[in-house]
Amino acid sequence: MRSVLILIYSAFFMISSGVLSQKTNQETLPYEPPTVISATEAVYPIRSVASGTVVLEAALDDGGAITNVRVVRGIPSLTEEAIRALRQWKFQPARLNDHPIASKVPVGFVFVPPSFGPRR
Fold it and tell me: pLDDT per residue over 49-69, tens digit each?
Protein backbone atom coordinates (compact mmCIF):
# COMPACT_ATOMS: atom_id res chain seq x y z
CA MET A 1 0.00 0.00 0.00
CA ARG A 2 2.82 2.35 0.87
CA SER A 3 4.49 1.77 -2.52
CA VAL A 4 1.19 2.63 -4.25
CA LEU A 5 0.99 5.93 -2.35
CA ILE A 6 4.59 6.71 -3.24
CA LEU A 7 3.84 5.92 -6.88
CA ILE A 8 0.73 8.15 -6.84
CA TYR A 9 2.66 10.94 -5.10
CA SER A 10 5.52 10.63 -7.61
CA ALA A 11 3.12 10.71 -10.55
CA PHE A 12 1.37 13.77 -9.11
CA PHE A 13 4.71 15.52 -8.57
CA MET A 14 5.89 14.78 -12.13
CA ILE A 15 2.61 15.98 -13.63
CA SER A 16 2.51 19.16 -11.54
CA SER A 17 6.16 19.97 -12.23
CA GLY A 18 5.59 19.42 -15.95
CA VAL A 19 2.70 21.86 -15.91
CA LEU A 20 4.77 24.40 -14.01
CA SER A 21 7.67 24.07 -16.41
CA GLN A 22 5.34 24.61 -19.38
CA LYS A 23 4.03 27.80 -17.77
CA THR A 24 7.59 28.98 -17.11
CA ASN A 25 8.58 28.39 -20.75
CA GLN A 26 5.53 30.32 -21.97
CA GLU A 27 6.28 33.19 -19.62
CA THR A 28 9.93 33.45 -20.68
CA LEU A 29 9.18 33.46 -24.42
CA PRO A 30 6.95 36.51 -24.93
CA TYR A 31 6.26 37.63 -28.50
CA GLU A 32 5.97 41.30 -29.37
CA PRO A 33 4.69 42.00 -32.90
CA PRO A 34 6.39 44.58 -35.12
CA THR A 35 5.22 48.17 -34.69
CA VAL A 36 5.01 50.98 -37.21
CA ILE A 37 7.42 53.84 -36.50
CA SER A 38 6.45 55.96 -39.50
CA ALA A 39 4.02 55.49 -42.37
CA THR A 40 3.65 57.19 -45.73
CA GLU A 41 0.13 57.55 -47.09
CA ALA A 42 -0.65 56.24 -50.55
CA VAL A 43 -1.69 58.90 -53.03
CA TYR A 44 -4.68 58.12 -55.23
CA PRO A 45 -3.37 57.81 -58.83
CA ILE A 46 -4.87 60.59 -60.97
CA ARG A 47 -5.45 58.26 -63.94
CA SER A 48 -7.34 55.64 -61.96
CA VAL A 49 -11.09 55.36 -61.58
CA ALA A 50 -10.97 52.29 -59.37
CA SER A 51 -11.69 52.05 -55.68
CA GLY A 52 -11.14 49.36 -53.10
CA THR A 53 -8.56 47.91 -50.76
CA VAL A 54 -5.11 46.73 -51.76
CA VAL A 55 -3.70 44.21 -49.27
CA LEU A 56 0.07 43.69 -49.10
CA GLU A 57 2.34 41.59 -46.92
CA ALA A 58 5.65 43.11 -45.84
CA ALA A 59 8.50 40.77 -44.87
CA LEU A 60 10.70 42.41 -42.24
CA ASP A 61 14.23 41.49 -41.22
CA ASP A 62 15.39 41.43 -37.61
CA GLY A 63 16.20 45.14 -37.84
CA GLY A 64 12.67 46.07 -38.96
CA ALA A 65 13.67 46.84 -42.57
CA ILE A 66 11.32 45.73 -45.35
CA THR A 67 12.98 42.96 -47.35
CA ASN A 68 10.07 41.94 -49.57
CA VAL A 69 6.53 43.05 -50.42
CA ARG A 70 3.98 40.49 -51.58
CA VAL A 71 0.61 41.41 -53.09
CA VAL A 72 -2.16 39.54 -51.28
CA ARG A 73 -5.04 41.34 -53.02
CA GLY A 74 -4.36 43.91 -55.70
CA ILE A 75 -6.23 46.31 -57.95
CA PRO A 76 -4.36 46.89 -61.23
CA SER A 77 -4.37 50.70 -61.25
CA LEU A 78 -3.76 51.05 -57.48
CA THR A 79 -1.33 48.31 -56.45
CA GLU A 80 1.88 50.05 -57.56
CA GLU A 81 1.05 53.16 -55.53
CA ALA A 82 0.35 51.01 -52.45
CA ILE A 83 3.71 49.22 -52.87
CA ARG A 84 5.51 52.57 -53.34
CA ALA A 85 3.99 53.94 -50.13
CA LEU A 86 4.64 50.76 -48.10
CA ARG A 87 8.32 50.64 -49.09
CA GLN A 88 8.76 53.99 -47.30
CA TRP A 89 7.34 52.73 -43.98
CA LYS A 90 9.65 52.20 -41.00
CA PHE A 91 9.07 49.41 -38.48
CA GLN A 92 10.39 48.42 -35.12
CA PRO A 93 11.11 44.68 -35.43
CA ALA A 94 9.13 41.92 -33.79
CA ARG A 95 10.74 40.51 -30.66
CA LEU A 96 10.79 37.01 -29.23
CA ASN A 97 12.21 36.54 -25.75
CA ASP A 98 13.40 40.16 -25.97
CA HIS A 99 15.46 39.45 -29.14
CA PRO A 100 14.58 41.06 -32.50
CA ILE A 101 13.37 38.57 -35.10
CA ALA A 102 12.29 38.58 -38.75
CA SER A 103 8.54 38.63 -39.30
CA LYS A 104 5.73 39.39 -41.74
CA VAL A 105 2.98 41.96 -41.37
CA PRO A 106 -0.16 42.52 -43.46
CA VAL A 107 -0.96 46.09 -44.53
CA GLY A 108 -4.12 47.33 -46.24
CA PHE A 109 -4.50 50.52 -48.27
CA VAL A 110 -8.04 51.78 -48.89
CA PHE A 111 -8.42 53.84 -52.07
CA VAL A 112 -11.43 56.09 -52.71
CA PRO A 113 -11.57 58.27 -55.82
CA PRO A 114 -11.48 62.00 -55.04
CA SER A 115 -14.70 63.91 -55.41
CA PHE A 116 -14.53 66.96 -57.68
CA GLY A 117 -18.25 67.78 -57.83
CA PRO A 118 -20.04 70.58 -56.00
CA ARG A 119 -20.35 70.22 -52.23
CA ARG A 120 -23.83 69.84 -50.78
Answer: 999 999 999 999 999 999 999
Coil/strand/helix, residue 112: coil
In this structure, what is the dihedral angle of CA atoms 85, 105, 57, 102, given to the nearest 10 degrees? 100
Task: Please tell me the CATH code under which domain 33-111 is placed.
Answer: 3.30.2420.10
Q: On the CB side of 73, how many CA atoms lie within 13 Å of its CA?
A: 11
The answer to whether 85 and 41 are in contact (CB under 8 A) is yes
What's the pTM value of the predicted model, to 2 decimals?
0.72
* Cβ atoms of residues 45 and 78 within 8 Å: yes
Q: How much is the pLDDT for 4? A: 30
What per-residue string of b and e applies to 73-112 under the rule 16 or more CB within 10 Å gives b?
ebbeebbebbbebbeebebebbbeeeebeebebebebebe
Q: What is the rounded CA–CA span in Å between residue 61 and residue 87?
A: 13
The model's pLDDT over 74-91, given as tens digits with 9 standing for 90+, comes to: 999 999 999 999 999 999
